[in-house]
């Protein structure tokens, strides 16, 4: 599967030139003229990279960056500008841009930056999937695991209070009746925890 790159620029010549450069390098390139057109292609977990111009009529590249960050903050956004200066670069990085490129940038510079961004995105997605796999076995028995945790807390409170249920209820912040119900549910006898 090729990595998608969403290229947002109101200048048709720039869109065409950079789009062809990306397609020739094997990217599934999606071209958009404005934010409103571009956001239809994005969703949380989208596996690609966004390349956006800063100066566009209506919503600009910083608006695009903010919108992408709301959809999925891990999607890398490369900001293009024809008028780079230090304050703009600082703003781009502060607002979460992956990189800032000054137009016209060379094909090599664009591709190197997009490759770095796609590698970062692929790594983040891989880590996210691994985390989901690690958590998945726990979800089926969540109620059972919660009951085990509750039972452990009650036993520790009983041990700390020398088997005195009334004191254990205070330690746990529970009404006595609630603790007695839980003791019955977990088949626990306070006297078993007296020193």
Task: Write out key terms for the chains shown.
12% strand; 5-stranded parallel sheet; elongated; Arc Repressor Mutant, subunit A
Descriptive account of the structure:
By secondary structure, this protein is of the alpha/beta class. It folds into two domains: 4-138, Rossmann fold (3-Layer(aba) Sandwich); 142-193, Arc Repressor Mutant, subunit A (Orthogonal Bundle), CATH 1.10.10. The protein is built from eight helices and five strands. It has a five-stranded parallel beta sheet with strand order 2-1-3-4-5, with helices on both faces. Strand 1 (4-8), helix 1 (12-24) and strand 2 (28-32) form a beta-alpha-beta unit. The termini are far apart. The mean pLDDT is 87.
Overview in brief:
By secondary structure, the protein is α/β, with parallel strands linked by helices. The protein has 8 helices and 5 strands, in the order E-H-E-H-E-H-E-H-E-H-H-H-H.
Topology overview:
Blueprint: E1 4-8, H1 12-24, E2 28-32, H2 35-38, E3 49-53, H3 61-71, E4 77-81, H4 86-94, E5 99-102, H5 107-139, H6 142-160, H7 165-172, H8 176-185
Parallel strand pairs: 1-2, 1-3, 3-4, 4-5
Give the structural class. alpha/beta
Distance between the termini: 65 Å
Let me know the CATH homologous superfamily of the largest domain. Answer: Response regulator
Spatial strand arrangement across the major sheet: 2-1-3-4-5
The proportion of strand residues reads: 5-15%
What profile does the largest beta sheet have?
Answer: 5 strands, parallel
The best one-word shape is: elongated
Total number of domains: 2
Strands, total number? 5
Spell the H/E element sequence: EHEHEHEHEHHHH
Name given to the CATH architecture of the largest domain: 3-Layer(aba) Sandwich
Average pLDDT metric: 87
* CATH domain class of the largest domain: Alpha Beta
The CATH topology assignment of the largest domain is Rossmann fold
Radius of gyration over all CA atoms, rounded: 28 Å
Determine the fraction of residues in helical runs and give it as a percent range.
Answer: 40-55%
Q: Number of helix segments?
A: 8
**Stretches with pLDDT under 50, minimum 5 residues:** none
């Amino acid at each position: 599967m090729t990595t998608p790159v969403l290229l947002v620029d109101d200048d048709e010549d720039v869109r065409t030139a950079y789009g062809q450069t990306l397609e020739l390098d094997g990217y599934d390139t999606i071209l958009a003229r404005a934010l409103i057109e571009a956001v239809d292609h994005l969703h949380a977990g989208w596996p690609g990279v966004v390349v956006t111009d800063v100066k566009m009529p209506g919503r600009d590249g910083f608006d695009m960056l903010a919108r992408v960050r709301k959809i999925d903050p891990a999607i890398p956004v490369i900001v293009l500008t024809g008028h780079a200066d230090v304050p703009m670069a600082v703003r781009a990085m502060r607002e979460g841009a992956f990189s800032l490129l000054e137009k016209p940038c060379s094909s090599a510079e664009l591709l190197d930056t997009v490759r770095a961004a796609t590698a970062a995105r692929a790594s983040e997605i891989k880590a996210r999937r691994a985390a989901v796999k690690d958590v998945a076995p726990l979800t089926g028995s969540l109620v059972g695991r919660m009951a085990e945790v509750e039972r452990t807390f009650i036993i520790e409170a009983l041990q700390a209070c020398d088997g005195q249920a009334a004191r254990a209820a205070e330690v746990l912040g529970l009404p006595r009746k609630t603790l007695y119900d839980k003791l019955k549910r977990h088949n626990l006898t306070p006297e078993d925890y007296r020193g």
